[in-house]
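Hey L., structure's done. Input below.
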Amino acid sequence: MTVTLADRIAHTIRNDVQSMHAYAVQPSAGLIKLDAMENPFELPPELQRELGARLARVPINRYPGARIDELRGALAVFAELPAGCSLMLGNGSDELIDLLSVACTKPQATILAPLPGFVLYELSARLRGLRFVGVPLRADFELDEAAMLAAIERERPALTYLAYPNNPTANLWDDAVIARIVDAVGRQQGLVVIDEAYQPFSSRTWMQRMAAHEHVLVMRTLSKFGLAGVRLGYLCGREALVQEIDKVRPPYNVSSLNAEAALFALEHAYEFGRQAALLRDERARLQSAFAAMPGVTTFPSEANMILVRVPDAQRAFDGLKARGVLVKHIAPLHPLLAGCLRITVGTPQENDTLLDALRASL
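Output:
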């Protein structure tokens, strides 16, 4: 009997994996890329030269060594890590999400998160054999407190994710509601992960409040800081808890080159802070311009992206792309996102082009 590759796949690959869709990255060549919440600014030429010379001296013939610990120390200072807390590094926060799933895999364990939210919470849970429970947000994209508390009581989740601010809606949820959810999870002996991926653009953080809750972890990434290509995330929490999760981290998961680039960026944090301030100003300008467009609804943002609702999201998306601007068409992702596009804040020049293209595409 001849065995085909399709037979081998059917025999060896999990059925649920075969039925999944891979995480899609849109082709962007030749387009103004406003679809992935990246920092649009490159380093000034003098810093590029300095970084290049520094990376050239990294001993890439050796496994990562003491510089990884130096990076952990530098991040602790930069993030103002509270006393009694520790942090671990990940190859982006994507890896940290997966490591949390690995560490918390027990029979019938559940991961809970509001929806719409970051897709990797659910994807990681399912790939690691965990149950995922999504709780819909309210129509205004605020947390549905009653539904969240009921789900926590019913499901007793091992992990509850709260994105702060949320992706793709870009808003910061009510702190009093979050506090009650955190307390409810604590009573059920679960963990809460406050995902602060967009912290450089947000007016609030849980970093200091984390210290008062032994079951709360704060997760951040340097991607939105300006190092999306470096792939570096960090997870913070009580030292004893982080030490347990760190046991499932692969050795040498952060490369020497990535670590050196991150150390360099932290030493020049003033430049990235300047860029973030400009993007916050541009965010406000875009929101005002969107609000003045007939038929367009813009939602509050504390991230480097803006959620807008337009009369015909597919038509607007196609029109923007035809005019050289790539955004994210998210209307199909969840019923609450009907008619919505997610637009990354770009440079002033990119944003000018975006506004002209959107007006012409509506």
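The first helix runs from residue 5 to 12. The two ends are 58 Å apart (CA to CA).

-- N.
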